[in-house]
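Morning run. Coffee first, then this:
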Amino acid sequence: FGYRYPDGAFVDDQCDGAEDLLEDPHAPSARPGSRAPHVLVTHRGALVSTIDLFSDRWVLVSGPEGNEWRGVVERSAACRALGVGWHGTSAAGDLDDSTGRLSAALRIEGNGAVLIRPDGFIAWRYAAGTDGGRALDAALERLGVRTAVGTNGRA
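And here it is:
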């Protein structure tokens, strides 16, 4: 914990300090290339660490107003090819983050999202905005995910 990749299998979001190789593990930046932060959340009635939720597959985590992300993941051929799972915080999904700690730790606003690699590192972050589906497909394209149906990730 505390290190970040300077380049590789992630899409840099050009935030300040993007060239930093080290960060305080007690105050993670959630920048692409860094490890997803550890936060305790309630999932299916049990208190779990986000590290456990993000440890074995690609996962997209959306903020509390990110209801559309589940459909984005389901419709995206690139997400299906990778087997991307989805978790939404509080009102939007299956993670109880009533304190807002997870959204704050991931540095996303209500409808933002973060794509986490199977090794627990952040591959892409969409802080907030509209048309996240296109941004996600573009990020997956930059990560080298290709599908048989085309380059935009849509079936």
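The CA atoms of residues 119 and 143 lie 15 Å apart. Good start to the day.
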